[in-house]
């Protein structure tokens, strides 16, 4: 089915995306991820893209096969280098642009690694929207976001 469709959306088991349709509207035919940004609200430290959130993303089959199909081979759990870090490394090394979602996905469900339930409070949703707004308007990261 994926071969025929030529693309897919991946969501980690036991999770779902409450605003899937809003995220899907940004599909660019290639890749769409969420980035994990640090220091967005800190005026004394620079904002950095730390990793790619691999709980949910969209990918064309060609882009996935070309760049990410073997990303798991570079993981090193002992060193704390997970799949999110491997995806980030590929994004940087291959200079991939226009691949970050301009809408924060609202992920709900039970985390497989922790067993914790994701709570989507209004405060959290507003904070994520503000964080993404600030990062999208930072020249340093603008090229990473899809239109």
**SS strand fraction:** 15-25%
**Radius of gyration computed on alpha carbons:** 15 Å
What's the helix-strand series? HEEHEEHHEEH
Global mean pLDDT: 93
Subunit organisation of the chains: single chain
Major β-sheet, in short? 3 strands, antiparallel
Q: Report the end-to-end length measured between terminal Cα atoms.
A: 28 Å
Give the number of DSSP strands. 6
- Helix segment tally: 5
The percent of residues in helical segments reads 25-40%
Low-confidence stretches: none
Structural class: alpha+beta
Number of domains: 1
Instruction: Describe the strand arrangement of the main beta sheet, using strand numbers.
Output: 1-4-3
Shape, per Cα inertia axes: globular
Which features would summarize this protein structure in a list?
147 residues, alpha+beta, three-stranded antiparallel beta sheet, 24% strand, globular
């Amino acid at each position: 089915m994926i071969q025929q469709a030529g693309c897919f959306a991946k969501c980690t088991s036991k999770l779902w995306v409450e605003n899937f349709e809003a995220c899907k509207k940004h599909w660019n035919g290639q890749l769409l991820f969420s980035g994990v940004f640090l220091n967005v609200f800190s005026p004394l430290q620079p904002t950095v893209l730390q990793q790619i959130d691999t709980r949910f993303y969209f990918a064309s089959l060609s882009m996935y096969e070309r760049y990410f199909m073997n990303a798991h081979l570079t993981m090193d759990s002992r060193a704390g280098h997970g799949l999110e870090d491997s995806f980030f490394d590929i994004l940087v090394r291959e200079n991939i642009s226009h691949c970050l979602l301009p809408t924060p996905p609202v992920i709900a469900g039970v985390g497989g690694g922790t067993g914790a339930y994701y709570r989507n409070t209004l405060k959290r949703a507003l904070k994520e929207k503000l964080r993404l707004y600030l990062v999208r308007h930072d020249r340093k990261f603008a090229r990473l976001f899809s239109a």
